[in-house]
Amino acid sequence: MGQLISVSGIDGAGKTTLAHAILGDLTSRGVRAEELEMGPSRVWRWTELLSRRADSAAMDFSGDRVGLALSFERFGFAMDHVRPALEVYDYVILQRFVLDWAATGRSFGAGESELALIKAFEKVMDSPTFMIYLDVPPEIAAARIRARGKSSNLREEESVLKRTARAYDELLDRFPGVLRVNAELPTHRQVELVREALAQREDERAPGR
Q: Looking at the chain, which terminus has fewer C-beta neighbours within 10 angstroms, N or C?
């Protein structure tokens, strides 16, 4: 079975750019690799829409409830699409995985129950995961988002970016082995760091080590 490379970070960190670049680097060296993207969450879209309504006060949009719904939606995608791809490719690159799920949930009030569920899912996937965290100041991420054009995504509001960045910082030590990459570095340098870390990881996994 192949290995999963997850690219994590707040919105505006440059996850899409780096994921594309990693794919290009791997395939140019003859490595079988594929990039998958979950796409917009239906659960998140409907939660945003309903929570903005004036009569939503009676609805219970607690962090744990929304987090649970999001988790099952994501788990379904991973089991239906990611696991089959890992049977075919040496590497599968995915934007936003368990670290992002946990950080997003925590930033909106989800507790330890969601984190325990996510950690359990890591075991169900039964595939080595190489996690990359793109570290960027929320102010810079917000400026990048504004440069792309006005966004109506709640996650892209600067106050939410700051809250989510704090959640990542709190959670990074709960996910050992994460490669922390400065998102302000040129993309080619980010790819070099990833390539070096993957090579070291392969050496450590080699028989007899």
A: C
88 vs 92: CA distance, rounded Å = 9
Q: 0.85 cut: is pTM over it?
A: no
Does residue 96 register a pLDDT over 70? yes
Domains of the chain: 3-205 (3.40.50.300)
Q: How many Å apart are CA 169 and CA 22, to the nearest integer?
A: 24
**pLDDT tens digits for 9-58?**
999 999 999 999 999 999 999 999 999 987 666 666 666 666 665 455 55
**190: which residues sit within 8 A by CB, 6+ positions away?**
14, 18, 21, 134, 181, 182, 183
Q: How far apart are CA 43 and CA 11, in angstroms?
A: 18
How far apart (Å, rounded) are the C-alpha atoms in residues 94 and 138?
Answer: 22
